[in-house]
Amino acid sequence: MPARLVVKNLQSYFFTRRGLVKAVDNVSFTIDQGETLALVGESGCGKSMTALSLLRLLPEPGRIVSGEISLDGRDMLHLPDIEMRRIRGNDISMIFQEPMTSLNPVLKIGEQIAEVLRLHQGSTTAEALEQAAELLTLVGISDPQRRLRDYPHQLSGGQRQRIMIAIALACDPKLLIADEPTTALDVTIQAQIMDLLLDLKQQRQMATLLITHDLGVVASNADKIAVMYAGQIVESGTVKRVFENPLHPYTQGLLKCIPKLGEHTSLETIPGHLPDLREQLEGCLFLERCPGPCAPCGHQAPKMIESEPDHWVRCWRY
Question: Based on C-alpha coordinates, what's the Rg of the chain?
Answer without folding.
Answer: 20
